[in-house]
Amino acid sequence: TTATATATATATKWALRGTGYEYCNCDFGCGCNFGGFPNSKDGSCRAFIGFEIATGSAGGVDLSGVKCGAVVDWPKAIHEGNGKCAFVVDPATTDAQVEMLAQIFTGKLGGMPWELLGPTFEVVGLVKAKITVEGEGRKRTFRAEGVGEGRGDTFKNPVTGEEHLANVELPTGFIWTKGECGQGTFSASSNGVSIGAEKSNWILYEFDWSNA
């Protein structure tokens, strides 16, 4: 029953803290953060996202140090669903860790933001690929070997060429509350989900998620 499923989900406590990397095909800032709809050229939301979990656990499984990511393609706004998602985990990730992450990211264990995001996409595959993160601050590159990479950079002042820094604050944001924005170029493909964009939205953020 639904009640039993809910009880089981809430009985498995999870919490994740770390750094998130979000490269998407929206124009700078990402319309989803402002009005709930993508401001990409075709109204879709295509994103290559990465997570470095600094500290975390779920149901007694330690998730600290795990690196993972996802290649996601929603044809329209995220909340309108019909998305396809291919998850990526570093080869060092154990089966027990993968199982817990799968339950968290598909929303089965409740907790924000995944209880909202999980139902909006179909998981089409899982691939193990070496994940590396290079660079500092907004000039960060998130790479999954054989899958793709996102290269982040700062905005540039069109007159002087100097770096132009911009942040987005979302006091009630459920994915992140402070995003360090820039321009990113990404390309990624896995399990039939193929995405990419040049000099589009890129956001670096810290996350603190749980179902507590």
Written account of the structure:
The longest helix has 11 residues. The chain has three helices and 14 strands. Strands 1, 2, 3, 4, 5, 6, 7, 8, 9, 12, 13 and 14 form a twelve-stranded mixed β-sheet that branches. The protein has a two-stranded antiparallel ribbon with strand order 10-11. The mean pLDDT is 95. It is mainly beta and 212 residues long.
What key attributes describe this structure?
212 residues; 3 helices; mainly beta; globular
Classification by helices and strands: mainly beta
Proportion of residues in helical segments: 10-25%
Strand composition percent? over 45%
Count of beta strands: 14
Spans of at least 5 consecutive residues with low confidence: none
Shape: globular
Terminal Cα separation, in Å? 22 Å
Rg over CA atoms, rounded to whole Å, is 17 Å
Oligomer, anyone? Answer: single chain
Number of DSSP helices? 3
